[in-house]
Amino acid sequence: MPADTFLPTSALVRAAFGDAVIAWYDTSIYPWSPVFRANLRGADGQAIDVVVKRAARTPERVAACAAWQRHVIAAGVQALLPVEIEGELTVAADDRTWIAYPYVTGAPWDGSIEQISTAGRALGALHRASASFDHPELPRFAWPEPTPESIGKDVAAIRTVCLLELPASIANDVAARWEAEFDSFAATTLPAIRDANLPWFPVTIDHRVTNLVFSGDGDLPTVLDFENGDVAPRLLDLGHSVLLIMLETTPNPGRLFDAAEWVAFRDAYLAEAPPLTERERTLWPTALTYTRLEFGTWHLTEGAEWDWPGNRPFLLDLLTLDEQARFPLVD
């Protein structure tokens, strides 16, 4: 996406922060949405380097997210609290609310087993801390309501991707597999997860490398981006992270976890997280398939970033993935 795409938005947001602005950098540091570097004067009058991004859509949800962040930080999770500007957590601009967080730097992502392990520990620690938190303004996860029309649209979109991106020798077989899975989604896969009475608590459903700042010394990375979190089955959060954690990373390995990386992530997660229930363990394979169909489809179709370095082989790995064989809970 061109670097100047968000310049009009930048001007509006900068103006909304008014006299709190000491320095402002117009170019978004994130290619897919407006995220701006700035130096602002906080509520105590001190200058602080920040990133400014879109906040949750209502003040009540912003306050709920901040309370969740305070809770997990108190429990030992590395996370950030919003910067208050004149006593407020957000400002309004461009028909949205905007929030500032301290700007932090860390070790570059290198895809090492150590970093993958600390990412797993961080997710486990976040689940452990979040299990004891609730807030009425945090939204509940909304289960999909598939229709024959929506399923047909997904089938057609995936078939198109298969025919365009895969060798002719396997394209039809892969498309047929996805079609069969979509056909059984509403009657089998969805109710198996939805109706299983799994443990629910606040989760980000976006635990990815792009939302982690690694320490470089083996400590837990800092977790970013709580704004779009839900109260949801934590098994879906784990499945989402397993499938998509390395999407859009730089450098990008061009694939999902290999066997050694999966074991490192899995074992680190299980060492920190609340123990999985027997029902969660039984439904893990189904949860992975649910996650691929529910979240992976968008990343492979209308949300696909085929030209991002390394993304094409990554997405092709996702498209042809046998997740149940690749990511077992036990060796």
**Sheet with most strands:** 5 strands, antiparallel
Q: For the record, what CATH class of the largest domain applies? A: Alpha Beta
Mean pLDDT: 94
- Measured as a percent range, the helix fraction is 40-55%
CATH topology of the largest domain: Aminoglycoside 3'-phosphotransferase, Chain: A, domain 2
**Alpha-carbon distance between the two ends:** 42 Å
Q: Give the topology string: H per helix, E per strand.
A: HEEEHEEHHHEEEEHHHHH
CATH superfamily of the largest domain: Aminoglycoside phosphotransferase (APH), C-terminal lobe
Give a count of the beta strands, DSSP E runs of length 2 or more.
9
Structural class label: alpha+beta
Main sheet strand line-up: 1-2-3-5-4
**Any idea what the radius of gyration is?**
20 Å
The rough form would be described as globular
What is the helix tally? 10
Unreliable spans:
none
Give the strand content. 5-15%
Could you walk me through the main structural features you see in this protein, from its secondary elements to its overall organization?
This protein is α+β, with helices and mostly antiparallel strands. It has 2 domains: 7-102, Phosphorylase Kinase, domain 1; 113-326, Aminoglycoside phosphotransferase (APH), C-terminal lobe (Aminoglycoside 3'-phosphotransferase, Chain: A, domain 2, Alpha-Beta Complex), CATH 3.90.1200. Helix content is 46%, strand content 13%. It is built from 10 helices and 9 strands. The chain has a 5-stranded antiparallel β-sheet, covered by helices on one side. A hairpin with a 2-residue loop joins β4 and β5 (96-102). It is globular.
